[in-house]
Amino acid sequence: MEDPAINLSSKTDLSVLATEESSPILEIWGKQPLKGDVKISGAKNSALAIMAGTLLCSDECRLTNVPSLADVNSMIKILSALGVKIKQDGDILDIDGRNIGHSQAPYELVSQLRASFFVIGPLLARLGSTIVPLPGGCAIGTRPVDIHVRGLQALGADVHIEHGMVHASVKGYQGRLKGAKIYLDYPSVGATETIMMAATLAIGETVIENAAQEPEIIDLADFCRSMGAKIRGAGTNTITIIGVDRLHSTDFPIIADRIEAGTFLVAGAITYSEITVSNVVPDHLIPIIAKLKEVGVKVVEDSPSCLRVIPGELTATDITTLPYPGFPTDMQAQFMALLTLAQGSSIVTETVFENRLRHVAELKRMGAHIRLKDNHAIVTGVPFLSGAPVMATDLRASAALVIAGLAAQGKTIVQGLHHLDRGYENIETKLQKLGAKLHRVTQPTVEQILQTSVCV
Ligand code: UD1
């Protein structure tokens, strides 16, 4: 049988491959020192939950510091499909959900964005019934929604799953949920958000025990409070919500993205560059800063919203991902990129998601020395990484590959940029301003396609 690769190059006009549908790629020339200041955007995960939360409001809402991201665009489409009117002007979103037209979220959109399942709590609380498709699994794991469902059931909702759709409705109390004491089996971020939002309009008091404590939970609670909700304890493991009859208009700024900030701190560390990361909340970065210190990198607070990374010789350390305030799973891949160049052996243990080590194979393509055993990656530092064509497997893995490319010798080509665009606003421009040499090729040449296709 003919080798298809040989067939392709010998008989086909290769230019047909470089069509408009070719996926963009990122070309990075590593080993450029970085310098200067980077301004961090609004937090993706906060923005997505809060956008869902606007469904609770019977008036118009304004959100500011909303990052321009593919995931935010997906959430805009979902809210629009529900009949919400949205105007976008830079980082400002004006959201008018006074007349929600539908209570059923469309499958095509929910399947693209897991966070869109978060509309279930607000829709149920506001309308008394809703149908939301199961979000399905994703690249990093199966990601069930059983904790969300049990929480809504505890609030008095009838929830059943039919043909992949979650049907939720409230029968008694004139269609209103009823407060309850709810213990979460696991401090799930999404489930805490779903239950907290649903409880804001319930009758009586809800107490969520073993709640997630992430900064995005506090931001969502602050947003709900700015609309008149009564919530206390957000940011601790016990959140108490006293339901109110309605929520009113608000103008609310989204907090800074701690994961984007952490990603840039690691970019400074891996390129041995002193850079400043501004518009951040240093307290949200405590676990990341602590681990950077362990590997030999100092992070100083120049002002209450400004951190400067002072690089140093990298030494190995161990990382275990955990719910906040533990080390964030969303920084695991980027930190692993850093550890590939740290002297000694590090063990990276992923405990939050079951399939979040797929970047290991790609980092190995760049010369990293990593062994996988169950949910552990044993990383032995190498003197240098080499540029290579690599494929992003999920959002944070894509950032890890970009970071590795910044430190590598020669040219790295990152494919699968739709992952990167989900969570990093203008990452190339921000890195270019810091002095990195990289650019996006929207229509790769045949040579570039063939270079990257080895890892497809
Ligand atoms: C959120 C973040 C994501 C981050 C994660 C953990 C958003 C939009 N995404 O995701 O970036 O990586 O928190 O910090 O905010 N689980 C269940 N049943 C459930 C819910 C969760 O078993 O009903 C499991 C998940 O499969 C996962 C673990 O709990 O293994 C953590 O998930 P969770 O905290 O819910 O993360 P998300 O809210 O999906």
Kindly report the spatial arrangement of strands forming the biggest sheet: 21-22-1-23
- The number of E-state strands comes to 23
Q: Could you say which overall geometry the principal axes of the C-alpha atoms support?
A: globular
Which value, in Å, is the CA radius of gyration?
Answer: 23 Å
- Please give the share of residues in helix: 25-40%
Largest sheet: 4 strands, mixed
Low-confidence stretches: 1-19
**Number of DSSP helical runs:** 16
Strand content: 15-25%
Distance between the termini: 22 Å
Q: Structural class from helices and strands?
A: alpha+beta
Which ligands does the model contain, each kind named once?
Answer: uridine-diphosphate-N-acetylglucosamine
Overall mean pLDDT score?
91
Structure description:
This protein is of the alpha+beta class. The protein contains 16 helices and 23 strands. The protein has helices at residues 4-11, 44-53, 70-81, 107-110, 120-127, 146-154, 189-200, 215-226, 258-270, 286-294, 332-339, 359-365, 395-407, 417-423, 427-433, 446-453; strands at residues 25-29, 36-39, 60-64, 85-89, 92-96, 129-133, 157-162, 165-170, 181-183, 205-209, 230-232, 238-242, 250-253, 275-278, 298-303, 306-310, 319-320, 345-349, 369-373, 376-380, 389-391, 411-415, 437-441. The strands form six sheets. The protein has a four-stranded mixed sheet, sandwiched between helices. Helix 6 runs parallel beside helix 7 and helix 13 crosses helix 14. The longest helix is centred in the middle third of the chain and has 13 residues, at 258-270. The protein is globular. Residues 1-19 have low confidence and may be disordered. The protein binds uridine-diphosphate-N-acetylglucosamine (UD1). Residues 45, 48, 114-115, 141, 143-148, 186, 188-191, 216, 329-330, 352-353 line the site of uridine-diphosphate-N-acetylglucosamine.
